[in-house]
Amino acid sequence: MKFLKEEKQLVRLIQVGPAIFSTIILLTLITFILWNKEQQLKREIETVTEVYYEDHKHELYNKVNIIHEQLQEFVHNEENELNKESLNRVYDAYTIAENIYNKYQNTKSKDEILQIIIEALRGIRFFDQKGYFLIFGLDGKIYLNDAFPQTEGSNIKQYSKQFEALEEILNTKKETYYSWDWYKPEDPHTLYKKRGFFKRFEPYNIMFGTGHYMDDFVKSNQEKYLAELSKIRYSSKDEYIFVVDYTGTMLTHFDSHFIGTNALNWKDQNGFKFMKAMIDLGKKKSEGFVKYDGVVRPSTGYKTEKTSYIKVFEPWQWVIGSGFYNEALEELISAKKTEIEKKSLENIQTVFLFLILTTIGVLILSSMVARILKEKFQRFKRSLAHELLKNERQNEILQETLTEKIELENVIFNSNMVSITDIEGNILYANDAFCQITGYSKEELIGHNHSIMKSPQTKKSAHKALWNTILNGDIWRGISHNITKEGKDIYLNTTISPLRNKNGEIVKFIATRFDMTEKVKADFELRKKENILVQQSKMAAMGEMLGAIAHQWRQPLSVISIASTGVKMQKELDVLSDEFLYESMDSINDSVQYLSRTIDDFRNFYNPNKLESNFDIQDALDKTFNLVKVQFENNCIQVIKDIQSVKLFGLHNELLQVIINILNNAKDQLVLTQSRDKYVFVTAKKENENLTITICDSAGGINKEHLLKIFDPYFTTKDEHHGTGIGLYMSQEIIEKNMGGKLEAYNQTTEHEGRSYFGACFKITLPIR
């Protein structure tokens, strides 16, 4: 009865549960969406405030920098115009002097002509009546100084040492711009900075010059620019440019009453001297923003907060600035906030309506789903009984399978050697396989240390490293050398793992092993065979070396023989001269030195040292070509080289042995050809992070069936007196096993001087480390 009551409750839950669950989910979703919209509204308003403020600051920055750039350009243009005017005035004076000189040079003396020129230029005024001409000689004598006639006839250097530098300039150049300090006619006791132009009049070795006073020029430019600046108008009364100098004097302002007054003590309503702060900021950082409160806004007449940006024009010590009133900014932000809030409310209303309609739809759908679920539940109940019967049978089958699995695990467990030791290495457990392979019984093993089976050949360092590994909590894997009870060597592939207690402390070690003694012995036999191959390769290389030495020695030995015989014959004939004797001895000595170098070259080449080193492949190949040069020349074989300088780290001598082996093979094949064109093409270049060396010949190539076997040990296409079949096998072993590279063989056609040559190619690829 209880089961039937629970079944009715379950059916009822299926009918109303989805509707209740859907309603809760939808109400939660509505709450979350409303909260999310509120947070989104706050973020948008904060973003608008930040963006509006930053935009206005950027606008201020651009406005002031445009004025600053215009001022720089204005000053630059005015200076250029003034410099140009100085040049034109001096050129005018020069032309006047040149015309007078040309007119009177044949009728009047130098002094008379010079006096006419001086009087012609005297009294000429320009630059607002402050400019005049100056004439003085390269020796410093003043001929004309119209503003200070009392100095005429004296030396200009007594008034200023600066003219010594001008004298040096005009000794090498005909004209120049120049700056110096000089007095004003209205103030003959104070030096003022002047800038002007000078030109040398070569017939009399005198200089014409004029200049303008820089302070007058700057003052005039300031007045001009302030007049231009006052004409600038913006769309709002709140926008204007102000300029104040370092002393605090207001130079331009929207309110003309402030122009000419000192603004250093201007304060806002908080007592903050904002204009002094702007000047100090400009002196320290040359530009920046200043915020202050309680200044009058022109468009309203009320006090409000303001933000200004200033930038210094350093040449004139001006501070240029402009600002915006935060009240106007707040009005714009407020309008934008209202717009965002209105739009957000509309979005919330739309979402709310959508969720209500969705809720109604979900409730209808939940009712339909509940009926479907009820029907499915009835079918499920009927099939449940059937499945229970079916599961009973499956459990019986599973129990049988589990029993088989346990038996299988026991078989696997007992097929490998398994032992457990304590933290000191004393054996706590050993399975039957362990006893069978080692020859010890369980009684002989348990309680004893594993070291009873350790081979005396095992190094102490290796044993110590094993214990360091497992005591650190790591798994040790490797091959251990052990001794059976009968004293036989066995090699075991061993894995030792630490076992921990609930506190994470190592308390035991479990080791699994399997016997691989036969494999180790087989590997040992293989290494013995490889050593035999290496020895045979060395013997073959020794034969090659002796042959090469014989070729290299024939010519110098012949020279020594001829020289010594010639000396002996002339001595017997009593015609031996000192000159012939010395020449013969020098020839013999040169040949002996050559033989000695040859021995060193071959000894270095066959040096068994296998230490890796840095070397340049270009230098290495040059040494190799020197070793085979005589043999190749005797057989009319040409070596065509295309070798880049590439730095390599590796086995230098072993690489050279491989290359000379390939070169000798190419030589042997080329000797057999009937062609007159006998070439070996050698290239070496860097490709990505590898060095690629290719050695190709023109001997006709390798048969296809031989290409598959060419690197096999003892395979050779030569007769038994000329080949062992070891060279290429050992070459591949050196390149691929010792140097981590690759050695390939193939046939290829090589183009040279418009002709094609077919032959064998060997490609060596080595990593550049």
Mind explaining what this structure looks like?
With 769 residues, the chain is α+β, with helices and mostly antiparallel strands. It has helices spanning 2-104, 110-121, 162-172, 214-229, 274-285, 326-415, 432-438, 442-445, 460-471, 517-572, 578-605, 617-634, 652-672, 704-707, 727-738; strands at 134-137, 142-145, 175-184, 187-201, 206-213, 242-245, 250-252, 287-296, 303-313, 318-325, 417-422, 427-430, 476-483, 489-500, 506-515, 613-616, 638-643, 647-650, 679-687, 690-697, 742-752, 755-767. Among the domains are: 230-325, PAS domain (Beta-Lactamase, 2-Layer Sandwich), CATH 3.30.450.20; 418-515, PAS domain (Beta-Lactamase, 2-Layer Sandwich), CATH 3.30.450.20; 517-606, Helix Hairpins (Orthogonal Bundle), CATH 1.10.287; 608-769, 2-Layer Sandwich (Heat Shock Protein 90). Strands 2-1-5-4-3 form a five-stranded antiparallel beta sheet, sandwiched between helices. A hairpin with a 5-residue loop joins strand 13 (476-483) and strand 14. Helix 10 crosses helix 12. It starts with a helix and ends with a strand. The model is unreliable at 720-725 (pLDDT under 50). It is a multi-pass membrane protein. It catalyses: ATP + protein L-histidine = ADP + protein N-phospho-L-histidine. Residues 473-528 form the PAC domain.
In short:
The protein is of the alpha+beta class and 769 residues long.
Distance between the termini: 84 Å
CATH topology of the domain at 608-769: Heat Shock Protein 90
Number of strands: 22
- Supply the CATH superfamily name of the domain at 608-769: Histidine kinase-like ATPase, C-terminal domain
Mean pLDDT: 77
Radius of gyration: 53 Å
- Note the overall shape: flat
Structural class: alpha+beta
Instruction: State the share of residues found in helices, binned by percent.
Output: 40-55%
The appropriate CATH architecture of the domain at 608-769 is 2-Layer Sandwich
Instruction: Write down the CATH class of the domain at 608-769.
Output: Alpha Beta
Q: What is the strand arrangement across the widest sheet?
A: 2-1-5-4-3
Uncertain stretches of 5 or more adjacent residues: 720-725
**What proportion strand?**
15-25%
Largest sheet: 5 strands, antiparallel
Q: In DSSP terms, counting alpha (H) and pi (I) runs of 4 or more, how many helices? A: 15
